[in-house]
Structures are given as C-alpha cells and as structure tokens.
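Researcher: Let's walk through a ligand-bound prediction step by step. First, I give you the protein sequence. Second, the SMILES string for pyridoxal-5'-phosphate. Third, you return the three-dimensional complex as structure tokens. Ready?
Model: Ready.
Researcher: Here are steps one and two:
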Amino acid sequence: MKIDDFPNEIAPFLIPEPKGDLVYECLGCSGIYPIKKLLYVCPDCGSVLLITNRKFDELKKTDGATWQKIFDYRRMLNIPALKGIYRYHELIGPNIPIASVIYLGEGHTPVVEANQQLQQKAGARFYYKNDGQNPSASFKDRGMASALSYIKYLIDSKLAENIIAVCASTGDTSAAAALYASYLALEITSAVLLPQGKVTPQQLSQPLGSGARVFEIPGVFDDCMKVVEKLSENYSVALLNSKNSWRILGQESFSYEIAQDFEYDMKDKVVVVPIGNAGNISAVMNGFLKFHMLGIINHLPKIIGVQSEHADPVYQYYLEPDSDKRVFRPVSVKPSVAQAAMIGNPVSMPRVVSITKKYNETAGQQSVFFVQVTEQEIMDWGLLANRNGHIACTQGGECLAGLVGAVREGIITDSECAILDATAHAIKFSGFQDKYYTKTLSDEYRVVSKQELINTPILMMPDNPEKIPAQGKPLGEEDFRVFVDDICRKIARELELSDSK
Ligand SMILES: *Cc1c(COP(=O)(O)O)cnc(C)c1O
Ligand SMILES: [Zn+2]
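Model: Step three, the predicted complex:
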C-alpha cells in the first residue's frame, strides 16, 4: 500500500525519521558512552554493555494502542528497509536513517502451531516460531541486520571506513556475519573463527560461500572467543559476536513479532528459548520489557531458558534460590547435539542476571525459569517434532524437551500456551539426525537411538542386479520393462499397497 492511502492519523508515523538518543550503558559500573564509536565492552571496567535510548520516555507520548496500529499498518508498507526487523525502528535502532538499513529478508518468520498429536505428547499447547526461515537459516540474522545497519550508518556518516569485521562462532553467527558483510563487500571485509570440527559442514560452507576469510581453531567455542577478544583488544576490528550490543537490539525483534502475531495479547503465553552465549534470551526478555513499558502489551509472557546438561552454566547458576548467594561458575562443556548452544562461559551472563531480575520485578512474580534437559531428550523430541511437520534444528528440539520438562516441573499450567524458538533450520544440523539414524553418534553424547524414530533409505534392487540402468548406459527396451515392473512390485510390497483394479 502507498503512503497516501493510509489513514491520515497514522500516515505521519509510518516512515520513521532518525530520532532518540542512544548510548552504551555499562552493566558493571553504570558508565554511559556515546554510540559514535563501536564499543563491545566498557572502556573503564571491561563489563558488557547494553544500548539504551535516553529519550525512551518520549515514545510513551504515543499510547500503546496507537503503537499497535503503527506496527500493523507498517506491515502493509512496501519499503524494503521497513520490511524486516526495522518495522520496529523506534525500538531497534531509532537513530539509524532508513537509508542505512541493510535488509536481506530477515525477520517475520512463521509461527506454526503443533498438530494435536504432538501437543498431546508434549502435554502442552505450543507453537514453533521458525527462525530457521531467516536468510542464513538461523535467528542470528536478526542481530546481524542490526549490527551491520549500524556499521553502514557509521560508514555513511564518515565515522568509520575500511571495516574488518570478525567473530567467533558455533556456526550460525559466522554464517550470518559473512552473509551481511558480503552485501557490503566494497566497504567491509569479514573474518570468522570457528572451533575446528565443531560446526556442521553446512555451517562451514556458509561463510566460505559468502567470501569471508575462515579460520579454524583447535578447541571449543569458548577458546575461539578468547582469541577474538584478544584480537579486538589489540587491533582495529569490528567484533560481531553477541558481545556487540547492537546484535542484542536486533534480536529483540523476535519478541515484537510474537506480540504482534498474537494480537499483542501475551496473557498466558510462555516463550521458550535455548541458551548458549545467552545473547538471545537477554534480547527476548528485553524486547518484551520494552513493549510492556510502552503499554503495547499488558502482560509479560513467562520465559523459559533451556540448557543441555552438557553445557548448563546458566541453569547451574540459578539452582541457588537465594540471589545473594548465587555465584557464576563457567562449566567445561561436553559434546552436545545442541552444538550451537554448547557454551560453558556465556559472554552475556551479566545481561541475563540484570534483565532477569528486572523482568521478574516488573511481572511481580517469578516469570523467568531455567530448565535442564538431556541430550537424549533433545534428539528424541527434535526428531519427533520434525516427523510432525516442523523444521526444528537440534536447539529447537532442545526447546521442546525444555517445554516437556517445564510441564513436568509444574512451571507451565493448562491454561498456558508456549511459543518455542526453532532457532535454526533443521538442515543445518541434519548430520546429527544421520548419526542418530545410523547409530554412529559417539558415546560422549550419551544418546541411544530409538528404533521407532530411526529412518534410513532402502535400496531397491531388481532380481537381476546385472540389468540396471546407469548414467549414459540405458537398458534395452525389454530389460527396462522388466526392471520397472520388478522395482514397482517390490515397492508396492514394502508399502503394502493394494491393487487399484
Ligand atoms: C546462537 C544459537 C543459539 C544460542 O543463542 P545464544 O544467543 O548464544 O544464547 C541457539 N541456537 C542456534 C541455532 C544458534 O545459532
Ligand atoms: Zn563499566
């Protein structure tokens, strides 16, 4: 729809002008720093930062119902920069002119209700939000669209040039970073550091295909992260890990979309996310908090963060009920099929601690929960989900396992309905499925393949294995007829087909 065709009272709000007063805010010393420079950590105390809008209260001049209308009408506007996460421009990057916004098709991923059988098995009503349907097939594109739009804005404003963007990754951050950087190939060079053998072949092919410099490092993600941090301390590089608070801003869009897709009614809703570096859960909580502060939603949904018992530092931290006695201890990770979340020392831990506290206080009761699941549960629930029409990656399986665990623990009641983050597309992690089916997952995962979930291809050979067609060597007419009849009969027997006559 064209801007002139919108109602007069809403049209002036639809195409946003740069506004607001964004600053980095340190979670350690509360220091405030201007955003004219790319900062990852506090220059004074080294803690992680969040970006806040010092003019946020000005947004309150518009009431919640009007904001809902703005976002709903903006949905109909055909301006590419506002088709992705910047539909929520005022909350994501109010200072970014829409001319600097990079849009590659991210965001607004489908919310798909589970069928009756699967909901019954899980013991709760639920939907998957398919973030694997983002351009690089994971939710990381949300944060990257934000971070790269900000960098483009710096370049356009002559505040930066010749950017070398780097990140460490469990696979999906690097795919997203390389993709978005390659769109700005003239202005940005990207380099990614991956733990050798700890990303899937698909994830490795992604940054290579986007033309990034790819470095494989011995060890696990936490080791890679240390190297990247050292790089960013000693050299002039733009760090694209979720330590970069612009990533968090972009990932808040996940919550805005859920709110909008459920008509802004968050009563009795539960949002389930897997936790790795803990950037995503921080962003998801922050997003709902902001919508709540503006009266766009009246209820905060419950949040459930899920971790595998092979990489569960956040879960361990919250086991202690007394907040004064909690101590964060990094864990040494064991192999996990939820490999994208296999992180023992999450960089966003201070964000989780600070935002969880605020979230529970705002809700007036405990509304954030942490659940631990086994590798077996992750695989079994993920495979079962995909047998019922979903495209969940192993981390999406982890969410469903977490939902089931939360039901078991009484965290979720009958009246509630959950939205699970399928954080990446199933095909990125299909190697784990293959290994489950062929019973070749190494013992360290502690997963036993369940016969009823296994599915493998069946090679169909004719009675005479000499007479088979091959590339460039077709069978003679009669041999080919025999071959087709033979295979046809065998498939019909396998499928127990009945005669059509
Ligand atoms: C990065 C990632 C996670 C973990 O998200 P964090 O923000 O690191 O907690 C989970 N699933 C997938 C598919 C990911 O790529
Ligand atoms: Zn500080």
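Researcher: And what stands out?
Model: Residues 289 and 358 are 9 Å apart (CA to CA). The chain has a mean pLDDT of 96.
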